[in-house]
Design goal:
The complex is a heterodimer. By secondary structure, chain A is an all-alpha fold. Chain A contains eleven helices and no strands. The mean pLDDT of chain A is 89. Chain B is an alpha/beta fold. Chain B has two domains: 170 residues, P-loop containing nucleotide triphosphate hydrolases (Rossmann fold); 67 residues, no CATH class. Chain B has a six-stranded mixed β-sheet, sandwiched between helices. The model of chain B has no long low-confidence stretch (mean pLDDT 92). Classes of the chains: A mainly alpha, B alpha/beta. At the A-B interface, helix 2 of A face strand 2 and strand 4 of B.
C-alpha cells in the first residue's frame, strides 16, 4: 500500500500529458479559427449587402425596440401562462393515453380503441384548424355550461392536439424498454401496474425527455396561434405595433424574447440528462 | 520474437480508488494468458485498458511493438487488431446472427456483403451454428449467444483476443460449449488474454497464469505452478477458497 502514496508520474506519462495538452490546444485553436472565419464571413456578407441600411432601420431599430418591449413582454406573459398550464394538462392526458394504449387488459379494449382514434385524429388535423373549430364552433353551440372565453377555448384546442403528440412520444418510450425488465419486475412479485409505475415508466420517461423538451418548446411557440381567436400574445402584440408603424423591429424583439426562454431551458435539460446518463452507465469512455 | 502484447508499469484509478497498480505483463504470440483473482481485483479493467475502453494514468501498453497508449494514436486503428468478448455477450439485438458477424467485416474492413456472409457462414458452420444464421440473438440460448459473440470477433482475424469472464453468465452445461470453442482457438494458435473463474479450464488452456489482487500481479507462472502449487500465501488462500467453492 505504500506504493500508492509514493507514486509519481513516469517521464513517459508526463510526456503523454504534454501531448494531450498539445492536442487539445490544437483542437481549441482549430475551433476558434473556423468559428471566426464562418461568423466573420456571415457578418461581412450581411453588412455589405445593398439593402443592409434599410433592413437595419426596419428590423433593428433599437429605440423603437425599447419602446415596444413592455407590450411584447405583456403578450409573452400570456404565452408563458398558457404553456405552463397547458403542459401540466398535456402531461396528465398524454401519460394516461400512452399507458392506456400499452396495456393489454381485455376490459380496456374499447378505451384503447378510442385512445387510438383520438391520437390518430388530433395528430393529423392541423393545430390551426382545431383552434378555429373549438374557438368558434363550441360557442356557436350556445351551451350555457360551456365557457365562451376564447383564451380558454384556444388553450383547450392546443391541449387536445399536443396531448396526442406527446402521448405518442411517451408510448414509444414505453415500448423501447426491453421486455426482460418487465419479466424481472413481475418475477419479484410486482403487479402489472406496479411494474409500469416503478420499473418501466421511470426508464421510459428518462429516455424520452429530449423529444418531450422539443414538444415543450414547440408548445411555447404554438400557444401564439390562439391569437387568431383575438387574444393578444407576444407575436400578436408585435404585429399590432408593426402594422401601425411599418417597422418590423417588434418581431425581432419577440423572437429574441422567445430565444431567451428556450435556449437556457434546452441547455439546462441537456446537462441534466447527461448527468443522469453518466451516473447510470459505468461502461467506459466511448 | 516480439511479443503481441507488452504492458509496463500500468496504473489506473477511478477517482481516489486505485484499480491497477504498477502492473507489467508480456504475452508472446500464439500463447494464452489467463488472469485469475477475486471480483474487483482489476482483471476486467486491465482488459478494458488494453482495448482502449479506459484511459490509463501511467505506464505503457504495446501491441506488436507499437505503443497504443500514445495519445496521438487512432483508437479505431488499434481496436481493428483486437477482438473483445464480454461477459454479457453484447450482441446487437436488431441484427440477425449473420448480420451481427458480418457488420464489422463490411463496414470496417470493406468486404463485400457476399464475402462477409461467406466468412460468417464458414465460421457458423465450423462451430455448429449455421442453422441459427437467420435468427435474432434474443431467440438463442446464452451459450449460443456467447458462441456467436466469439465468432463475431473472429470474423475480422484479430491479432489478440480479449475474453472477459465469457462464461460467468452461463450455466455449467453451456459453459462447456463456449470453452470448447476457446480451446479450438488456442490450438489454432490464437493469442489470447482471458479473465476467468474456471480454474480447470485455465489449467488446460493457459501458457501463463497470473493471479491478481488489488490491481497487481501477485504471482505468475505455468498453470501447474500458480494453480497447482502456488507459492505466495495470498495465492494459496485464493486457490483454497476456489477449492472449497467446488470450482476446481
Amino acid at each position: 500500500m505504500a506504493r500508492k502514496s509514493s507514486w509519481s508520474p513516469s517521464s513517459r506519462e508526463l510526456e503523454r500529458r504534454a501531448t494531450k495538452a498539445r492536442i487539445s490546444k490544437r483542437q481549441i485553436s482549430i475551433a476558434a479559427i473556423s468559428s471566426i472565419i464562418v461568423i466573420g464571413a456571415l457578418l461581412i456578407a450581411t453588412i455589405t449587402s445593398p439593402g443592409w441600411e434599410v433592413v437595419k432601420k426596419t428590423f433593428f431599430d433599437v429605440d423603437y425596440g425599447k419602446e415596444v418591449l413592455p407590450t411584447v413582454i405583456k403578450g409573452l406573459w400570456l404565452n408563458l401562462k398558457l404553456t405552463v398550464i397547458g403542459s401540466i394538462c398535456i402531461g396528465i392526458i398524454a401519460l394516461s393515453l400512452a399507458i392506456l394504449r400499452t396495456t393489454k387488459s381485455a376490459a380496456l379494449t374499447p378505451f384503447r380503441f378510442l385512445a387510438a382514434a383520438y391520437t390518430d385524429i388530433f395528430r393529423g388535423v392541423p393545430l390551426l384548424l382545431v383552434i378555429l373549430l373549438v374557438g368558434f364552433g363550441v360557442p356557436a353551440l350556445q351551451l350555457r355550461a360551456i365557457t365562451s372565453n376564447v383564451t380558454i377555448l384556444g388553450s383547450i384546442a392546443v391541449i387536445l392536439t399536443y396531448s396526442a403528440y406527446v402521448s405518442e412520444v411517451i408510448r414509444s418510450g414505453i415500448l423501447s424498454i426491453h421486455p426482460s425488465q418487465k419479466a424481472a419486475a413481475r418475477s419479484l412479485g410486482l403487479s402489472s401496474a406496479q411494474t409500469m409505475r416503478f420499473v418501466v415508466l421511470p426508464q421510459a420517461l428518462r429516455r424520452v425527455i429530449p423529444p418531450l423538451l422539443n414538444d415543450f418548446v414547440s408548445l411555447l411557440k404554438d400557444t401564439g396561434l390562439v391569437s387568431i381567436l383575438g387574444v393578444i400574445d407576444a407575436i400578436r402584440a408585435a404585429q399590432i405595433n408593426s402594422s401601425r408603424t411599418f417597422n418590423y423591429t417588434p418581431y425581432v424583439v419577440a423572437a429574441i424574447l422567445f430565444l431567451l426562454i428556450t435556449i437556457p431551458l434546452t441547455r439546462y435539460t441537456d446537462k441534466a440528462i447527461r448527468g443522469t446518463y453518466s451516473r447510470q452507465n459505468a461502461e467506459g469512455t466511448i | 520474437m516480439q511479443p503481441v502484447l507488452e504492458i509496463k508499469n500500468l496504473r489506473k484509478s477511478f477517482g481516489a480508488e486505485l484499480v491497477i497498480d504498477d502492473l507489467s505483463l508480456t504475452v508472446p504470440v500464439h500463447t494464452a494468458t489467463v488472469l485469475i483473482g477475486a471480483s474487483g481485483s482489476g482483471k476486467s479493467t486491465l482488459l478494458r485498458c488494453i482495448n482502449l475502453l479506459e484511459s490509463i494514468d501511467d505506464g505503457i501498453i504495446k501491441i506488436d511493438g507499437v505503443e497504443i497508449s500514445d495519445p496521438e494514436i487512432d483508437p479505431d486503428e488499434v481496436r481493428r487488431k483486437l477482438g473483445m468478448i464480454f461477459q454479457s455477450f453484447n450482441l446487437f439485438p436488431h441484427l440477425t446472427v449473420r448480420e451481427n458477424i458480418a457488420l464489422s467485416p463490411i463496414k470496417v474492413h470493406h468486404k463485400t456483403k457476399e464475402e462477409a456472409f461467406e466468412i460468417s457462414n464458414q465460421l457458423l458452420k465450423r462451430f455448429d451454428l449455421l442453422d441459427k444464421a437467420e435468427q435474432y440473438p434474443d431467440r438463442l440460448s446464452g451459450g449460443q449467444q456467447q458462441r456467436v459473440a466469439i465468432i463475431r470477433s473472429l470474423a475480422v482475424n484479430p491479432r489478440l483476443l480479449l475474453l472477459d469472464e465469457v462464461t460467468s453468465a452461463l450455466d455449467p452445461v453451456l459453459v462447456n460449449e463456449v470453452l470448447s470453442i476457446v480451446r479450438d482457438l488456442k490450438s489454432d494458435g490464437m493469442t489470447m488474454v482471458l479473465a476467468t473463474h474456471e480454474m480447470g479450464f485455465a489449467t488446460q488452456v493457459a501458457d501463463q497464469v497470473c493471479y491478481l489482487e488489488s490491481g497487481t500481479i501477485i504471482e505468475r507462472g505455468t498453470p501447474n505452478e500458480v494453480i497447482g502449487n502456488p507459492s505466495n500465501p495470498k495465492t494459496k488462500d485464493f486457490i483454497k477458497r476456489v477449492h472449497q467453492a467446488g470450482r476446481l
